[in-house]
Amino acid sequence: MADFLNNLLFFIVAIGVLVTFHEFGHFWVALKLGVKVQRFSVGFGKAFYTYKRKVGQHQDEVEFVLAAIPLGGYVKMLDERVEEVGEDEKHRAFNTQSLAVRTAIVVAGPLANFLLAIILYWSVFVLGTSAFQPILAEPPAQSMAAQAGFKSEDIVKQVNDKDIVTMTGFRLAMMDAAISGERIKISVIDRNNTEAVRLLQIGDKKILNVEGDPIEKMGFNLWMPVIPPAIGQTVAASVAEKAGIEANDLILAVNDSKVESWSETVKLISSSPGKTITLTLLRNGAEKKIDITPAVRKNSEGQDEGYIGVYLLRPESVIEKLYTTEEYAVLPAFVVAAEKTWSMSVLTLKVLGSMLIGDAALENISGPLTIAKFAGETASIGLVQFLSFLAVISVSLGVLNLLPVPVLDGGHLLYYLLEFIKGKPLSDKAQQYGQQLGMMLLLMLMSVAIFNDIQRIFS
After folding, report:
1. DSSP track, 141-183
2. Which of 7, 34, 60, 242 could form a disulfide bond with 372, CB atoms 3.0-4.6 angstroms apart?
3. From the centroid of its chain, how far is CA 212?
4. pTM for the full predicted model
């Protein structure tokens, strides 16, 4: 229940920030161009908070509203198609504006999301983010990576001549390259510190048209060293602290099973939720046995798992090899943030295009439940991770809103393009049919996304 409330809280925070920025783009440009704004709403449905304030050069009274359904928002402007407008205000109605003015107001929303993404990425790069280095594990036999000659502890330096710093950067570059081309050139430094180039043959394989992680399906996983099961510290009030486990204890066995690595220790403890187990510890050169009952929690698949509340003692040598810090000075961070926003936008479009032509599985579409889960998880990890999550969602929101689907900003821009070509607006009837079609497409997409969310929960 606590995880659910945490996810819900940060989902509302995330959507609130993204929607507010998007709608503020419409709002600010409309005011600057002289259009009368009547309401700025974050959320749909019944308002539970309303604040009125006079704004702009005309000192118009605007209602600022927080509404009950936090899945979007809107800016209401004076419009003859919605209400009667007096002769003295017709020049300030949205529908009477020039094509250029209407286009600027509509496009301002998605542009605000891209600007927000740049600000968020800039914050992340200035604060500095600790991330895994792009060190690869031994690929599974017969996988694409194995066939290309990848070996354990290959450190990726470039993908198609693009520099790679982190494992996340490698994954994104691989997604982009695999969608775009038939062959990927990957430069690595192997475990003997020798530079090498590996060529990955994609051919006509549709890498996104599979369930699960497409990068993992190709055979790429993060390399992890064998780390001894030594305790770094215990969580306050955890079952480990109550049982008397101390920092620097080395776990030798779980019940009668000897353990040599942290991963196998975690596996044995996780498989015993609510069941008393015996840990054999090495403390100050002497062995000590402790009986402990792992607490119960749900894993990512919704199954019970055991945990005792301890942190791994990470050797400095392991930390130095596994992790890197991606950090930039204030001004260079803006350039990197803008490049990151652009590359993420292009990748989002490519993935959407692959879905449209059937080259990507619809199972990869995520809905509000998955977004809420990631919102809660990233917020629990730390501020930088949550900001990175917001940046990704902001890019996605900007791209999706520019799609030429009626009811979205891109649909209005499509109408304006046709108006520019024809020399006059589309008929009200044609626009109404377009709105109905767009609403149907969005409902279908949302249905698929929610179905995928539910299937992930119960699978």
Report:
1. TTSHHHHTT--TTEEEEEETTEE--SHHHHHHHHHHHHHH-SE
2. 7
3. 16
4. 0.78
CA distance 264 to 78: 65
Contacts of 363 (CB under 8 A, 6+ apart): 211, 452, 455
Strands 295-298 and 286-292: unpaired
Q: 200: which 2 tokens?
A: 């990955």
Domains, in order of start, for the chain: 97-127+328-459 (no CATH), 129-223+317-326 (2.30.42.10), 231-313 (2.30.42.10)
Q: Is residue 216 annotated as part of the catalytic site, yes or no?
A: no
Q: Active site residue: 23, 138, 241, 287, which one?
A: 23
Q: Looking at the DSSP assignment, which residues form a beta bridge with residue 53?
A: 62
- Report the C-alpha gap between 31 and 323 in whole angstroms: 47
Q: How many CB atoms lie within 10 A of CB 190?
A: 17
Burial class (CB in 10 A: 0-12, 13-18, 19+), 146: middle
The CA distances from residue 79 to 55, 92, 346, 381, in Å, are: 18, 9, 35, 46
Q: How far apart are CA 35 and CA 38, in angstroms?
A: 10
Q: Which of 124, 115, 119 is nearest to 327 (CA)?
A: 124
Residue 95's alpha-carbon distances to 27, 89, 338, in angstroms, are: 15, 12, 34
Structure tokens at 2: 């606590």
* Number of residues assigned to the chain: 459
Q: Give the span between the Cα atoms of 333 and 157, in whole angstroms.
A: 21
pLDDT one digit per residue (tens) for the chain, 459 residues:
566 677 778 888 888 899 999 999 999 999 999 999 999 999 888 888 899 999 878 888 999 999 888 778 899 999 888 888 888 888 999 989 999 999 999 999 999 999 999 999 999 999 988 888 999 999 998 888 999 899 999 999 999 988 999 998 899 888 888 887 668 899 999 989 999 999 888 766 666 666 667 888 888 999 988 888 999 888 888 899 999 999 899 999 999 899 988 888 999 999 999 999 999 999 999 999 999 999 988 776 667 888 899 988 877 777 778 888 888 999 999 999 999 999 999 888 887 777 776 665 656 666 566 677 777 778 777 888 889 989 988 998 899 889 888 888 998 899 899 889 888 888 878 877 777 787 787 777 666 666 555 555 554
